[in-house]
Design brief:
31% helix; GNAT_dom; 33% strand; 291 residues; alpha+beta; 8 helices; 12 strands; Aminopeptidase
């Protein structure tokens, strides 16, 4: 009988990153879906935290020999929720591998007293949804994965400006995260450290007064917009559209033309805003809450 081994870590290494990517590509060949693994974010966190003592377990691996055949990760963006997502090699499914990893990850979330434990799954993933139905998880909400494949020249912002955030903005960023996304948030990585890895948070300003924020991640080929919000008292004035357009201009400056983002399906105002800026829906991610 083939012997499988487990490995638990606080952070992923570059080798882990590559192994997970290999497994992901194998799974994507088997089933057309989107896997929301947040590997770039996790590797960035890993590079910012080099301590040897393990405080929290976030990464759960299953190996056959030296080959990664199962993975599940906990992703936490500084709030009070833990998001679980992962995969198993097609040849090792229906053998309890993923359930074993999931049990360990869920126990870790409970130990850390997360207020919410969320399972994340592509709406089109047959295998993923089958597993979720075998648990006690209940549907919570959905997010659209949206993409813009060609940034065209946009109108110049007439009102708002985007300023790179500094570490002194950390408290304000955390405060706004709580307003936009609920719960309480504490920054895991400071803005100036994130910027070293082409992940830049911008404070949105109106007449030098902060009215929102937006984050832009990019590499040589593509960009990603996240953490975007306009403070409630400044909404419905067109500042959101101006801010998105300004962010797209920054990406275009770096010769990036393909941009992605995520938006809650029930957030119709944001969904319509992104569509008005040229974004199209590409996939739907379902979130299920377990206890």
């Amino acid at each position: 009988m083939e012997k499988l081994s487990l490995c638990l870590k606080q952070y992923i290494s570059e080798e882990d990153y590559n192994n997970i990517e290999i497994l992901k590509n194998i799974c994507l060949k088997e089933e057309k879906m989107f896997l929301k693994l947040e590997l770039d974010y996790k590797l960035n966190v890993s590079q910012m935290n080099r301590e040897n003592d393990i405080k929290n377990i976030n990464e759960f691996f299953c190996y056959s020999g030296e080959t990664l055949i199962g993975y599940i990760g906990i992703c936490n963006f500084g709030g009070d929720a833990g998001e679980l997502t992962g995969m198993v090699h097609p040849q090792y499914r229906r053998k309890g591998t993923f359930n074993r990893l999931y049990t360990l990850a869920k126990e870790e979330c409970i130990r850390r007293e997360f207020k919410r434990i969320l399972l994340v799954c592509d709406n089109n993933s047959v295998s993923g949804l089958q597993f979720i139905r075998s648990t006690d998880a209940i549907y919570s909400f959905s997010e659209y994965e949206m993409k813009l494949d060609n940034i065209i020249t946009s109108e110049e912002s007439k009102h708002v400006t985007l300023r790179k955030a500094s570490n002194s903005d950390a408290e304000e960023i955390s405060r706004q995260n709580s307003i936009y996304f609920g719960g309480t948030y504490e920054l895991i990585i400071m803005p100036e450290d994130e910027e070293k890895n082409n992940k830049v948070t911008y404070m949105i300003e109106l007449n030098s007064k902060i009215i929102g924020k937006i984050k832009i991640d990019f590499d040589e080929k593509s960009g990603f917009i996240s953490g975007f919000g306009i403070l409630p008292e400044y909404r419905r004035n067109g500042f959101g559209r101006e801010s998105i357009k300004a962010a797209l201009e920054i990406l275009k400056y770096y010769n990036i033309h393909s941009v992605g983002l995520e938006v809650a399906a029930e957030n119709k105002n944001a969904l319509n805003l992104y569509k008005a800026c040229g974004f199209e829906e590409k996939s739907v991610m379902d979130y299920y809450e377990t206890h």
